[in-house]
Write a structure and sequence with these properties.
326 residues; alpha/beta; Uracil-DNA Glycosylase, subunit E; 6-stranded mixed sheet; 8 strands; globular; binds iron/sulfur cluster
Length: 326
């Protein structure tokens, strides 16, 4: 078993190696998951990935939560709650205009976009224990707490927001950046958007505790403005470290900033939905940010379609109201 000190040394060694190669960020890859290089799941005990080729859209006429069926709420999402569209927008955590869909969803394009931009990140050994992963994350988190790379963010933040969840999680949720509530509490996805995310998690038959949740940026941009490219670049090392330590099987990108930064693409979120990409060994899906849903409730229907698409890959058919796998 690799000791925590050895893991720290390996991570630092890897980072230094990449810097020595002249790279500012840890290399990673973003390719559609129908690549023949698809990796097996981590740890041996997890279920193999389901076949990747499937119809783009799942049936939209039913869901597992009877009274909240598509016929009884405007968005069709089972986590639909009675709230006024646009109410409380001022409290909404960071979602910039760039997090809104830039194009409407179109039939899945299985073309190779985004293209391969970097080699894969160096992850911990697949047999690494939860404790070893937690130890690697603790080293990274200490680096975030002390980080001053973005002078404006470092001088205005209340708390850094590193990430929460199971270090051994097979699912990682990636958001944009902390908002006011996150900045105050030091935890990602709290407040109204966080509550909506919790509802989505429940509708997906998951528990928040079994998911690792983090953002592209670990510090709040003042006024919840759009993260700058340089800030995302500065913080990428921490995100890559988290991905390497957790080595998830699935990553869900919530919003444009998360999707574009992780996949290193300029494609709008509407073009990235309803298909899988590869990041390390993880399969990546992209959908709209919960804060966007607070301002645009009809988009919940599309997110629900994305959740069904993703969970079907995990062997869970949300359309049928019963589990067929994990
Ligand atoms: S956003 Fe990331 S890189 Fe920038 S100061 Fe915060 S922790 Fe450092």
């Amino acid at each position: 078993m690799t000791s925590p000190n050895e893991l720290r040394r390996l991570i630092r060694q890897t980072l230094e190696m990449y810097r020595g190669m002249g790279l500012e960020q840890i290399p990673h890859v973003a390719v559609p998951v129908d690549s023949p290089a698809a990796a097996p799941p981590r740890g041996g005990g997890r279920e193999p990935a389901a076949p990747l080729n499937r119809p783009r859209a799942m049936p939209t006429g039913s869901n597992s939560l009877g009274s909240n069926s598509l016929g009884s709420n405007p968005s069709g999402a089972p986590w639909e709650r009675p709230f006024k569209p646009g109410a409380g927008v001022a409290e909404t955590p960071a979602v910039s205009p760039s997090s809104a869909p830039l194009a409407s969803a179109e039939p899945a394009v299985l073309s190779p976009t985004p293209k391969v931009v970097r080699p894969a990140p160096t992850s911990l050994p697949v047999q690494a224990t939860r404790e070893e992963r937690a130890s690697a994350l603790a080293v990274l988190q200490q680096g975030v707490v002390n980080c001053q790379r973005c002078p404006e963010l470092a001088s205005t933040r209340t708390k850094t927001v590193f990430g929460v969840g199971d270090p051994g999680a097979k699912i990682l949720f990636l958001g944009e950046a902390p908002g006011a509530d996150e900045d105050a509490q030091g935890e990602p996805f709290v407040g109204r958007a966080g509550q909506l995310l919790n509802d989505i998690i429940t509708a997906c038959r998951l528990k928040r505790e079994e998911i690792y949740i983090c953002n592209v940026l670990k510090c709040r941009p003042p006024g919840n403005r759009t993260p700058l490219e340089g800030e995302c670049s500065n913080c990428r090392e921490f995100l890559d470290g988290q991905l390497a330590a957790i080595d998830p099987e699935y990553i869900v990108c919530w919003g444009t900033t998360a999707a574009q930064n992780l996949l290193q693409t300029k494609q709008p979120i509407g073009k990235l939905r309803q298909q899988f990409f590869r990041q390390g060994r993880a399969k990546v899906v992209c959908t709209y940010h919960p804060s966007y849903l607070l301002r645009n409730p009809p988009a919940k229907k599309e997110v629900w379609e994305d959740m069904k698409f993703w969970r079907q890959e995990m062997g869970v058919d949300l359309s049928q109201g019963k589990k067929s796998g994990s």
